[in-house]
Amino acid sequence: MRIFKDTQKNLANLKIKIFFVVVFIWIVLSVFDVGFNFIKSFSEAKHWLPLSDVQKRHEIYGNIYDFVAFINNHTENYSSILVYSKSDLAYYLGRYYLYPRNINVISNKNEINQILTKKYFNYVALDNYQQNFNEYTVLVSVSPWTILKHL
Amino acid sequence: MNIIIVLLIIIFITIIGFSLISFFNLLSGFCLLSKIAYSFGLGITLTSFQLYVFSRLSIPWTKPDLIIPWLIIIILTLIKNMRNLSMKIPEIPKFKKIDWILTLLIIFCISYAVFEALIRPPVAWDSWAAWLFQSKVFFLSGKIDPGILRHFNLYYPLLNYLSNTFFFIVMGKVDDTAILLVSSAFYFFLTILFFDFIKQRYGFRRGLLFTFLFVSTQNLIRHGGRMESGLADLPLGFFSFCSVALLFEYIKSSSRKTLAVLSIFLCSAALVKSEGLALSIWIGMFAILHIYKNKLYGHLTFLLLWMVPVIDWEIYKRISGINNYFLSHSLIFSLSKAKSAFTGTFKELINIKSWNVLWITYFYTLLLKPFKNKELFILNFVIISQLILYVLTYIFTQGNSPDSSIERLLIHLAPIVMLEIVIFASFIEYKDVVKSISFENSEVVKFINDFISRIDGN
Questions:
Q1: What is the complex's ipTM, to 2 decimals?
Q2: A13 in reach of chain B (CB within 8 A)
Q3: Of B105, B365, B448, the CB nearest to A24
Q4: CA-CA-CA-CA torsion for A132, A133, A135, A138, nearest 10 degrees?
Q5: Nearest-by-Cβ selection for B364 from A22, A59, A60
Q6: Whole-model pTM?
Q7: I need a surface site. Which of A88, A118, B286, B289 has the fewest CB within 10 A?
Q8: What digits encode the pLDDT tens for the residues A83-103?
Q9: How many CB atoms lie within 10 A of CB B324?
Q10: Are A60 and A76 in a shared domain?
């Protein structure tokens, strides 16, 4: 019985010892993390600080940000825009940057005509695609983007 | 310029909270640092609630309308407490070398988070696609427009959105980089609250050590300013920690005023993210248990107050035809989904890169049966119930998987997990254990012994 109790006690002690060894490893790893962050802060500063706000956003979101900024610069607030783009980010990035414009994003170019006959849009914005549509005239075109305005 | 304005708004919001705490003498036994941290949380909740009430009553969200009521409260508090005003600086204990090192390490972590928040625009998808987008919508609409919420299928609780909107209104524009400082503010105030809580109970040095271990967690830094800033997970972690700390205080003192503040923080947790509702129910349950055990039935009204805004928001959504979280995620079950829920969660729990050994240490403490201690029992119940809820959500709901979100969800629990480890470490008599290690003369053990005696101040 006593041997059993001793074994149990030793086991409990061992478990607690392991706990403190883990905490000790934790301290070492945390100091290492701080060192890593310290070094990283220099490379981050070197990379990001020289960039302008637009360049930073281009770096984060990619080419689609430039397209969204292009639409933002050439359309009015509260207008409705049909956006054609194959980018996965187009809808969410578009609604974020273009609000309060009302956007409808599609990725299939064959659907454009169909949608335009059903619904009225102030503008049609095309990414990597050149095409004219009835009742729309080219407002601005800078390769690879085009914005058409309703007549 | 906007960065300075955001900093000033953070200070203003903290003063609002502090004024209310002082005016109603709510946290009388608490230390200044804790009061400041609670004040920030209270200020965020109250200003968001103000926007919600104004919108419901069709009062326009103009700068003077929003700021003047708070200025009146601040002035009234100053007048009321004029006689008791003292500019006493709290006593600072003598710093030894180890204290300086730990303090500098903590300061570095906070500075690093702030630096990272300001260096670039929001990166995390949800940050701009959901949280900041909706705040921008509110700011430009000048109200909560149910039509817009329906149009964009926005159904999440409003606290975090409205808090960002308050910043945008006072700034007069949307600045999605400067607003990231609010995430750093949550990180900062969580740090000082955590430190003060541990310091009060277990001493200054242990407070510093465990705060350092906590704030250096890489995932926390990411949410405090790096890649994941702008999300609502850190605010939920902050509110859940506040709630637990206040619950412990309430259990100790049975003070009605502490319960009132706890009630506000439970409400904040429930309204910052959908997951917070479950968290506040687990924590609230223990407050109810305490009320029942001690026959403090008059306190129930105070506690149940937190449910009023939560129920109101649910009713508002239903009346306005806004989607519901549970209705927009249909139920589904498959073995592969269950397998991925378990493996995905497990992989994240042992992800040292994100969490250091926080979760590994936590699960190890469970092996040592910490349930005999009342506080440890409460913490473990809350943590495990919430973890089970997350895993069940992954198993049974469509469109949810640990790959995309578990790293964030664990942030809700990280502060209270750390607290569990601290209480556990202080619960066991480690000094005797370390002394009894057979390889006592080794350099490692000498270092541990030396380190522990320094922490204890011997």
A1: 0.90
A2: yes
A3: B448
A4: -30
A5: A22
A6: 0.91
A7: A118
A8: 999 999 999 999 999 999 999
A9: 12
A10: yes
